[in-house]
C-alpha cells in the first residue's frame, strides 16, 4: 500500500468535525516546505519577527525597595 493510499484510509476514519484540523496541518506542512522550515506564526499566518535585544528598555520600572524583606516575613528571618 502506498503512503498516499494509507493517508486517505486514515482520513476516512476521522469524524467530519476533524477535517478542518487536517486541512490546517496540510497548510502548515506546505508553508514549512516553501519557506525552508521557518516556523509559522499561527495568529497572523506569517513568520514571527526576529527579536531585538533591549526593545523594552524604559517601559518598565522596578521599585527601589524591590529586594527589601517584606513585613509579612519578618517573623521568619
What would a concise description of this structure say?
The protein has helices spanning 3-13, 19-34. The chain has 77 residues and is an all-alpha fold. The N and C termini lie far apart (71 Å).
Walk me through what this model shows.
There is one protein chain. With 77 residues, the protein is mostly helical. It has a domain at 23-47. 35% of the residues lie in helices and 0% in strands. The chain has helices spanning 3-13, 19-34. The longest helix has 16 residues, at 19-34. The protein is elongated and about 70 Å long.
- Structural class estimated from helices and strands: mainly alpha
Helix proportion of residues, in percent?
A: 25-40%
Major sheet size, sense and barrel closure: none
Over all CA atoms, what is the radius of gyration? 25 Å
Number of discrete helical segments? 2
Task: Look at the structure and give the mean pLDDT.
Answer: 84
Topology order in helix (H) and strand (E) letters: HH
Q: Give the terminus-to-terminus CA distance.
A: 71 Å
Shape: elongated
Low-pLDDT stretches:
none
Strand residue percentage: under 5%
The oligomeric status of these chains comes to single chain
